[in-house]
Structure formats: C-alpha cells, structure tokens
Amino acid sequence: MCDATGKCTSCQSDYILDEQKQEHQVAPSEIKVGDILVVRAGEKVAVDGSVVEGSVALNTQSLTGESLPQTVSQGDEV
User: Fold this and answer.
1) Which of 4, 23, 36, 40 has its CA 20 to 30 Å from the CA of residue 54?
2) Cβ count within 10 A of residue 30
3) Secondary structure of residue 23 in the 3-state scheme
4) What is the largest CA-CA distance in the chain?
5) Are the C-beta atoms of residues 2 and 31 closer than 8 Å to each other?
6) 28 by DSSP, 3-state: which?
C-alpha cells in the first residue's frame, strides 16, 4: 500500500528489473520513479505506472467497482 506521498508501506516485497534485465527483490519503499516492476499472476500492483511489456487480466474492482477483470497490455496505465 502506498500513502499520498507515494511512499509504499506494505511489507510485501517486489521485483524490479535492472538495465541488464536481471530481477532484484526490493521493499516497496525502495521503488523509485522509472523502475520497471515485475508483476506476476495473482500479485497486486504496488504503485501507479504503465505496462511496458505483455498483457494480463487485472482485477481493478477496488478502483473502479467493476467486478470483472480488465485486460491491460503494453502502454496501458495501471
């Protein structure tokens, strides 16, 4: 979960990709603007951003009230 300043306070760890496309586990509080996060099936999206690669059916019910997952793909904002 992130607060109004963008600081993430969840105890969940996330994975970011470095310039060589290697995954590194980080705490949400360590996520910076410009980082590329790896989001796997069933995980929550920790911060606002846009899809860089791939597509997925994303549960947006807590944001939009829509009960059916919404398909998001490259370029879509999440």
Assistant:
1) 4
2) 13
3) strand
4) 38
5) no
6) helix
Q: Identity (one letter) of the amino acid at 44?
A: K
18-59: per-residue pLDDT in tens?
A: 888 899 898 888 888 999 888 887 777 778 889 999 888 888
Among candidate residues 41, 34, 44, 54, the one with its CA nearest the CA of residue 14 = 44
Strand order across the 36-38 sheet = 23-26, 14-17, 36-38
Q: What is the DSSP letter of 9?
A: -
| Residue 68 CB-half CA count within 13 A | 2
- What's this model's pTM, rounded to 2 decimal places? 0.68
Which residue bears the tokens 């963008």? 6
Per DSSP, the three-state class of 75 is: coil
